[in-house]
Amino acid sequence: MVSKQRFTINVLLIENDIGDAFLVEELLTEIQQFYNTSTLFQVKQVSSMAEGLKIINARDFQVAIMDLSLPDSQNLDSLERLRSQAPDVPVVVLTSLDDEELAVKAVEKGAQDYILKNELVGNILARSLRYAIERDRLHRELHRRAIIDDLTGLYNRRGFFTLGDQEFKRSKRQHNNFLIVFTDLDGLKLVNDTFGHVQGDQLIIEAAKFLKETFRDSDIIARIGGDEFVILAHENTKDSSTALKKRLEDELDKYNRRKKLKNRLSLSLGIASFSPETTATLDQLLSKADSLMYLHKKEKRR
Questions:
Q1: Please, are residues 21 and 28 in contact by the beta-carbon 8 Å criterion?
Q2: Local confidence pLDDT in tens for the 302 residues of the chain
Q3: Residues with Cβ < 8 Å from 150, sequence gap 6 or more?
Q4: pTM reported for the whole predicted model
């Protein structure tokens, strides 16, 4: 007889009512014992929002069950605080019959599901938790696809502006500097026309690899057009624009010599600086870097 593979789901239960907490744990235990399911639920119960917020990032929880009426947190504020602390943990709301309208609003605010306490049944609870985990996974995968460029694995235009706007606001708030690097892959049209689009795509992929090798993990690297890339780079030295341009040119020369590519990589660059005192928007910085990139491209053609 072949034994079933066991899957463990770690559940954080935030419930101050001892009876309700006991019932949830008993139901999930019964599911394992009487339905011979391959899923094992490991439940950690806490009785306050403060305890929940403290533990949720310290343990690997796949899902959280929470009551919206806790001693130290009430209504939608409870959900918002938990989602803010651990946005990657799906939440199922547990509520009484007279709070169903509030539970529906909680789903609209980001909870994956809700269950009325008077309808607590083992298989319904288990199914709700499994579905919550799967829906959350699908949602994150769709979000990832929406901001990732399929060809290179870099961020796409939407991804760049989503993360770039966050970084822009953070840098303003924390008085940090950064650079916007706009780079264009030289000669892509010629490669496409001469060798075909497969070779052109390979050149784009090589450009992306070079940028990922050259910049830090904390920098935001994106492909925002066919042959156009943009990087938000955390550079803080006084002459960082000049130094970065020189470093990129040196690293590109080394990359070409090391890789011995059929089609040599050539990039035109434009760099715009951000400081907390600037009044320019992210769009304006990108436009400035784009203009400087075209000047660099013209200089290379002389």
A1: no
A2: 445 566 789 999 999 999 999 999 999 888 776 655 677 889 999 999 999 999 998 888 999 999 988 999 888 888 999 998 998 899 999 887 677 788 888 888 889 998 888 888 888 888 889 889 998 888 888 788 899 999 999 999 999 998 899 889 888 887 888 999 999 999 999 998 998 999 999 999 999 999 999 998 889 999 999 999 999 998 755 557 888 888 899 999 999 889 887 788 999 999 999 988 888 999 999 999 999 999 998 888 87
A3: none
A4: 0.64
Contacting residues for 119 by C-beta, under 8 A, at least 6 apart: none
Nearest alpha-carbon partner for 285 in 159, 149, 179: 179
Q: Assign residue 112 a region: left if phi > 0, alpha if psi is -120 to 50, beta otherwise? A: alpha
Distance from C-alpha of 10 to C-alpha of 61, rounded to nearest angstrom: 5
CB atoms under 10 Å from CB of 98, counted, come to: 8
Other C-beta atoms within 10 Å of 219: how many? Answer: 18
How many C-beta neighbours within 10 Å does residue 141 have?
10
**How many whole angstroms separate alpha carbon 99 and alpha carbon 119?**
13
Q: What is the DSSP string of 258-287?
A: HH--SS---EEEEEEEE-TT----HHHHHH
Domains (range + CATH), the chain: 7-145 (3.40.50.2300), 157-301 (3.30.70.270)
Which residue has tokens 């391959």?
A: 38
**Cβ atoms 283, 224 nearer than 8 A:** no
